[in-house]
Amino acid sequence: MEAIRIITLLAVYFSLPVTQAQTKKTPSLIPSQSVSVAQGQVARWAGNCLRCSLEKRAWAPVNGTCYYPVDMDMKPGAYTISRRTTGGKLETATLQVGFKECVQEDLKNFPKQEYVNVSAQNQARATKEASLVNPLISFQSKERPAVFDLPVGKPAHNLPKGEGNFGACRTLNGQPRDRHTGQDYPVGMGKPVLSIGNGRVLLVANHFYSGNSVYIDHGNGLISEYFHLKSFSVKANQTVTKGQSIGSVGETGRVTGPHLHVGVRWHGACINPGYLLIDPSDMPAVN
Fold first, then answer.
1. In terms of residue numbers, what domain contains 200?
2. Which positions fall inside the M23ase beta-sheet core domain (predicted)?
């Protein structure tokens, strides 16, 4: 009787549809790769990279590593980043951008009155200057190969700690102004200003707001900016090397006193230059 019962059960089993007869297997869940960064920071994805992309923008890696600079005004949220490896594999991950509250700065009793109530003539001048600068620092679909390494070099000898005012929300005698796009360093008047890496000088000019200014292209979409200089020692289209003196610290333009202002645009993103001075392994990484 037992044998007959077993045969009957087997017959019923094999008469069922396959989806009912077989035990359904739960697929193993592979954690999605991600990295979290704050506005103005840089994320990295190391390992045999051939091409990097963030949403619809793409660029080459630096020494085989993909870097994803996050603009200080980039909307917080989740973004898709990807990389193609030298083996042809395409990988994707999530870039989670977090909000970074800006430092509030109210510059009172500003000494240069022409920057408090800006004349129509100076407004027109500033607009014209911005129309020349913006194309230089914006994202370019075709970029020169990188001629720099990370970390970059210090923009001054014995560089002091930055004043922590990158991205600051400013008012001038109570009047709102644009956010601060660079990092200020308390370097004394006349001290040498150094290029943070090898590159080519894009522009040397005296501008209304930034004063005597130098812009250097280091390849891979990395542009460094040096503002409020007392004097220049380079000219446009000149090739410079890492650590080379390009001018001296001053107080030209909209400033309250002498200091070194350093700005960085990478693939069009305005980022805190201090993040390029740290060891890349200390940057937030995809995992």
1. 104-282
2. 179-273
pLDDT digits (tens, 9 = 90+) for 197-255: 999 999 999 999 999 999 999 999 999 999 999 999 999 999 999 999 999 999 999 99
For the segment 144-166, what is each residue's pLDDT rounded down to a tens digit?
A: 999 999 999 999 999 999 999 99
- What DSSP element (H or E) covers 182? strand 182-185
Q: Mind spelling out the 3-state secondary structure of 63-128?
A: CCEEEEECCCCCCCEEEEEEEEECCCCEEEEEEEEECCCCCEEEECCCCCHHHCCCCHHHHHHHHH
Query: Are 80 and 62 in a shared domain?
Result: yes
Domain count within the chain? 2
The radius of gyration computed from the CA coordinates of the chain, to the nearest angstrom, equals 27
